[in-house]
């Protein structure tokens, strides 16, 4: 895919978000088409010899043993900072001693509020200040690699020109780490999306993807743990029916 130096293609997004907080800083969120669903980013759990402690407790043990440095934030006491354990950016399936943990399974186990928390899918859907060490939580701000490949497969299958269909990919400033800079925009074909996920200069999956005719749109906010897909009923129904994906209809 080719990186675009001109950003005219996102003017419609900027216009749609002009009255919203952040104005695209963490991503654009227009909902397009007949239907939508959220793909919940994958999480995993291990039953191996992992201590029954939190990521934060493990961090403090590592600091005491000289194997990690204390957390640092200007003006804050390191003891007041908490290690949540939540991955930021691109993730992939961990080693073989981990198995997929469904959000619904964990919610049932922990009586977690999930959608009743009143916010889109994020850390507030579960009752943890710091996640259990045995769990690798869903990534924040980036869909996981396996779910991304499945999403792309469904988009290609429902697109008129299949993998040759034209699309745009946007990375919001917060996802690239260039807080004061513009978003980064790529243009190319759907078949090139999977390669783009693995090969660029920052640790994030796409913030937004859309086709030139704007018949579908994906949205991964930098502060959320899920990716919303909106578009045709055919596309959304195929994603919801995929047993390898976990979805929710949070409004």
Give structural notes.
By secondary structure, this protein is of the alpha+beta class. It has one domain (1-45, 85-251). It has helices spanning 11-16, 55-64, 103-110, 145-157, 173-176, 193-198, 233-241; strands at residues 2-3, 35-40, 43-46, 98-101, 135-136, 166-171, 184-189, 208-211, 217-219, 226-231, 247-248. The strands form two sheets. It has an eight-stranded antiparallel beta sheet. The protein has a three-stranded antiparallel beta sheet with strand order 4-3-5. A hairpin with a 5-residue loop joins strand 8 and strand 9 (217-219). The longest helix is centred in the middle third of the chain and has 13 residues, at 145-157. The radius of gyration is 19 Å and the shape is globular. The two termini are 32 Å apart. The mean pLDDT is 90.
Number of distinct beta strands = 11
Average residue-wise pLDDT? 90
Strand order within the widest beta sheet: 1-7-6-8-9-10-2-11
Tally of DSSP helical segments: 7
> What is the first-to-last residue Cα distance?
32 Å
User: Helix coverage percent of residues?
Assistant: 10-25%
Largest sheet: 8 strands, antiparallel
Unreliable spans are none
Number of domains: 1
